[in-house]
Amino acid sequence: MGVIREYMCDRSSGTRHAIVIDPADQTPEVAANRALAAVNAGSRMILVGGSSDTDMDNVHATIVAIKEAQELVTWAASQDSEVEEDTEGVPVVLFPQGAAALSPAADGITFMMLMNSTDQRFLIGEQVKGAPFVKKAGIEPVPMGYLICEPGGKAGKVGKADLIASHQTERVEAYAMTAEFLGFALVYLEAGSGAGSPVNPELIKAARRSCDLPIIVGGGIRDPHSARAASEAGADWIITGNITEEYDDASELQAVLSDLISGIL
Ligand code: 1GP
Q1: Is the pLDDT at 262 greater than 70, yes or no?
Q2: Is there a domain that residue 90 lies in?
Q3: Which of 6, 29, 94, 206 could bond to 106 as cystine, CB 3.0-4.6 Å?
Q4: CB of 151 shorter than 6 A to ligand 1
């Protein structure tokens, strides 16, 4: 098993937090500062991707900037005998909209099927297009079933998803079982970036009871309360995106994310 898959699927330390950085929304330098603030707050992974306006150039520049910033911090800490804490960086993983927004600098890629898309392109088309690049670049693919739930936001529209309604627990159970039977490593329940309400915890519980895969939950999680609700319902990873982009000041962002992460069990 690859190291990124092992890392993402490790449940020994309970629910973890990750941020998603959209390269279309900020410069690589700003993205790197935000990533460092998130890691200081306790985030354990940086996902890079967005539903639109990402391309090879902005995705690559963003990943390189984040990795260089992490390396600089690690190097600086190694020069300072006073610093005792672990300053190793966290993995930077592609969370792509498709084959046109990849980077060889990533540590891994969520190689995903948008399982409830109505468009062949998001079920298998983009994956077939992107696979040769992933292979050649030696990026570790982590197979993931991606499910978009109501309200779905831009991801739901772009991905032409037949959204999972908040009461459709049996439907989510069947998808989660299917993800496991197909050999995926992870299931991601997405409410859409900026969603007015996060994924219904009942859907998370349904996915949890029907498969053994680690569950990632994101979309509309903005406070410790909703982070805790997702965690209690069985999420292994809590993802936040928008909230990270609302703060330019790194220490302010770190404080907001520390507070949110404190809500996770
Ligand atoms: C995107 O689910 C994530 O895939 C993040 O959503 O921007 O609402 O935090 P937010």
Answers
A1: yes
A2: yes
A3: 94
A4: no
Domain that holds residue 126: 15-262
Q: Which tens digit of pLDDT belongs to each residue from 94-130? A: 999 999 999 999 999 999 999 999 999 999 999 999 9
Q: pLDDT band for position 215 (50/70/90)?
A: very high
What is the token pair recorded at 191? Answer: 């409410």
Asked if 225 and 5 touch (Cβ cutoff 8 Å), the reply is: no
Indicate whether residue 193 lines ligand 1 (CB < 6 A). yes
Does residue 8 lie within any of the structural domains? no
Q: Is residue 249 part of a domain?
A: yes
- With a 6 Å cutoff on the Cβ, whether 39 touches ligand 1 is no
- The total of structural domains in the chain comes to 1
Q: What is the mean pLDDT of the chain?
A: 95
pLDDT tens, position by position, 123-166: 999 999 999 999 999 999 999 999 999 999 999 999 999 999 99
Is 199's C-beta closer than 6 angstroms to any atom of ligand 1?
no
Ligand 1 pocket member 20 (CB < 6 A): yes
Helix (H) / strand (E) containing 240: strand 237-240
Determine contact, residues 171/207, Cβ cutoff 8 Å.
Answer: no
Does some domain include residue 118? yes
CATH number at residue 199: 3.20.20.390
Confirm or reject: Cβ of 223 under 6 Å from ligand 1: no
Question: Which ligand 1 atom lies nearest to the CA of residue 245?
Answer: 7
Q: Of the candidates 27, 15, 8, 13, which has an alpha carbon nearest to the alpha carbon of residue 260?
A: 15
Dist. CA 77 → ligand 1 center (Å)? 31
pTM confidence score: 0.96
Closest-CA residue to 43 (of 162, 218, 229) = 218
